[in-house]
Structure formats: C-alpha cells, structure tokens
Amino acid sequence: MKKVFFISLILLFVLNIKSQPLSRFYNNINGNEFGSNVVIKDENRYLITTFGICDPGTGNSKKCRTFLALNSKDEIVKVRKFINWFKFAESVNLQITNDTIYAFGINEEIWGEKTSWNIYKTNFRGDSLDFFTYEEFDDVVVFPVAMQIKGDYIYLLGRHYNWWTYRQDYIVIVKIDKHGKKIKEIKYGEGHKVLNMAFSMIKTIDGDFMVSGWIINSDYKEFIRPFIVKFDENLNLLEEKKLGTYWQSGINFPYLTGLLDRGVVVTNGFYVPDRIDELGVEYKKYELYPATIHKFDKGGNPIWSDTLWTLIERGTVGARKRIKKLITAKNGDVIGCGYYRDVDQKRWGYLIRINSTDGDIKWEKKYEESRYPNAKSIFWDVKEAENGDIVVTGEMDSNEGWGGDDSYTWLLRVDSMGCFEPGCEKIDTVQLIYTESDYISGTSEVISDYSYGEGIVVYPNPATSLIYVDFNVIDKIYMWDIIDIQGDKMLSGTKESIKEIDVSGLQAGIYFLRIQNKDNKVNSCKFVVER
Prior knowledge:
This protein is mostly beta strands. It has 2 domains: 24-441, Methylamine Dehydrogenase, Chain H, CATH 2.130.10.10; 458-529, Macroglobulin (MG2) domain (Immunoglobulin-like, Sandwich), CATH 2.60.40. Strand 11 (141-150) and strand 12 form a beta hairpin.
C-alpha cells in the first residue's frame, strides 16, 4: 500500500512539472503591435504589455500601447488600450508583487516640455487598481528605462535628455513608495565629460541594484564602452566598472542579470562572421572585436568571456545575434532572448541557455512559425515558469497584412531545452525550431483609457463605492456625467468634484464616465460597478 502511495506521489509530481508548450499570435489593434514585457501567474495566466501603431496609413495614426490579459486557456480576457500619454519604459516596464502588477511609462503628450512618469497598477484581469505620476524633475526631460520593486518601495531608472545637445547625458534613479511619494533621487554621471546612457536595471540576490549602460565621448565618434554600476537600497553607490576595451558604435545595448552565486553576467550585441571557406581570414577579422558576453564574480573580477561565435554556421560576414533580455533560471543558468538574423536578412526569434559557472553554451535555438515561413521575428522579453518552461513575448512581422496591420504580438512557451515538441535534438549550432501557432484576432472586452491622446484613468475598476479619476488635462474640464449602458444619465458634476466620485448608489453594471471641456470636446472612459 505504501509503495502504491509513493508511486502515486511520483506520478502526481511528474504531471505537475510537465511542460506546457504553446504558441499564440494576437492581433488586437488595427495596426502593428508587438509584446514588450510579460508576467506569469499560476503557471498559465499571463499579462503582456505591447507597443504599436494604431490605424496606420489612415491619416489618423497614433502611437498606442496595450495591456493584454490572458486567462488559463490562453484566451484574451481584456485589452486595455493607451495612446500617447502612456508610453511604456523601454527595458523593464512590468513588475509583480503578489497579485498586483505595476506598469511604468511616460506621458508622451508633454514629452519635450517636462517629464511626467506614470505608474499604473493592474491585475491579471486587466482591472484599473491605481494610478499616480512622478513629476519632480525640475522641468528636465528624463526618459524611462526600467523599474524594480523591493518591499514597500519602487525604484525607477531613467536617462536625462538634454534638448540643447540632443543627447542623453546622465542617469537618474528615483526611489518612491507605492503611492508615488519620493524617498530619494540620485543622478549618476552628471557633469562628466562623457555621456552616460542606461539601458537595464536588475535587483541582485543581495537586494542591491545594478545598472548597465554605455559611456560615450561627447561627439559620439571615438568610442562606446559598456559599464555597470551598483547601488544599495538607499541608492548609495557601491561599485562602478567599465567593461573591456573601446567598442565600435552600432553594437547593441548592454543587458545584465544577477546570478545565484552573487556574480553578474553582462551581454552586448555581437556580430557573427561564420564563413567556413575563408576561416583564417574571417577569424582574424573577428578577433578585432572585444568579447561580447562576460561574467564577473561578486567582487567584480572577470570569470569568463565569450563571443558566442559558432564556427559550424555557414554564411558570410554579417550574420548577427542580438540579446534583448537576460534572466537567471532557478538552477543558475543564464537564459537570453533576442533575434538571429542571417546574411539574407531573414530574422528569427532567438533563445540561448548558458551555464553561468563556466560559460558553456547548453543550446541555442531560433524559432519559425510554420504558417509564416517568410516572417521576421524578435523576442523582447523572457521569463521562466515554475515548472522550468521558458516563456517569451515579442513580435512576428508576417509581411502579409493590409494597411500596415501585419505585425502581431507573439507569446511562445517552450520547455527548458527550448523545445516546442519534447525531445528536439541538441546540436552544436543554432537549431531551427518550427512552431504551430493559433492566431487570435479581437478580444472579449476592449477598454480604451484614452480619447485622441488625452488619457483618462478610473480606479478601482471594477468599483463598489468610490471611483478616483486621473485626467491629463484636468484644468480644461467643464463638466462630467456618468451614463449607463442604455444611455441614461445617472450622475453629473463639475470639475471640482471629478477626482473622487461616489458610485455607491449605482446598481451593478457597465457605465461610462463622460468628460466635456469648455470647447465641447467630449472624452469618455468605461468602468464597471460590482455588488
């Protein structure tokens, strides 16, 4: 009996860790879109942020971003759409604590005049939970890069943009609480004779923060050199290191990940000359490039470096691999995502897995959707699921759409070996993996938190008693009203009462907050009342 019970436990364990591969394309806006960041909940619920262009080629095109909430069946639960006023940060724009998801971006409506950083709180249903801004930048422009959360505090990384020189010349890190109150702000590189450009920020296993970026001379001509800096939770500088020798311009941005042994791995773009018939010539040419992936121990000492050049590959000079994000797996391996492009400009989504102890490459794979053999793909973000599966989001440009609507958000999940189907053979070069994807167009519910670039946020959404309203042009508001789904006016008021509205007297259902300015322009936002 004990033996049967033990075997049952083993079978249950095996079933729980079984890989759950999936491949989905989502087309949720009339325009181009791609997934930029993804978070996972309960193994099979996802929330993706996307970038895109709405209504291209119509004369009314706009930059737009969305939250894409997916349920356990990989079906769309909700799409929440934003126009210019909420541009997501370029590197890390999503963080999750418990069931709450934080998104980080910028108000692009006033870009160039001042900086308004936006923090938006949501969940895996795509509900609006909270929204606040951080604007204490003394009228300077600071571009949002990355966000990390530790305990009760949010850490935001940005690059200062100098409108006089059209350059980004120093780094800004801000520590705020979860209501937007500033705790501390620091500037790194201000006053230096070189430009300091940040591209990535991570939280280390010790709870400190590391930033990677470039140091560039003032005229952009002589050198580009990657660097890393380390700060503690109080934003005190702990370490700074310049990496390698001078790098030629045009090489990709540096990204990094903290390791379980308290070291760090940093990668940059790398060009791959892979021509076998002239190996001697090409090898010498490649030696002119510095190593492009490095490991440093916790003391900052170099442990290993690699160019990630695979000699077996065929082609000519110009084939390229690019890493767009690095993470550390639960077993200590480093996983990177990005793209692989051959000399014919064919581009695949790309994954690599490296042993962080010795730098040995366990596998490299590029991915092609069987339905779109001529498509071009990039993976922008990668996460590890609890069972060890690897989840990526990115874009697939099918080159088959009309009016510019041919770039889709791609969500791909493979096993820990990078296989879409179990048992794909490990080979000593970049392996091509074919996927079979479902194409999903449209959604069960679309909520637009915008109207022609002027953003409205209502939270909490769904609501029970009070709703709070943030609106980018609050000084222009003349009056507001709340309309039910039949079009009947239920509540109304003036701009003095709009920031906090009592909806406790409304029945459960769907409502629209409608805002009118003195020029009779009307904006609206949908919200739900629950009972």
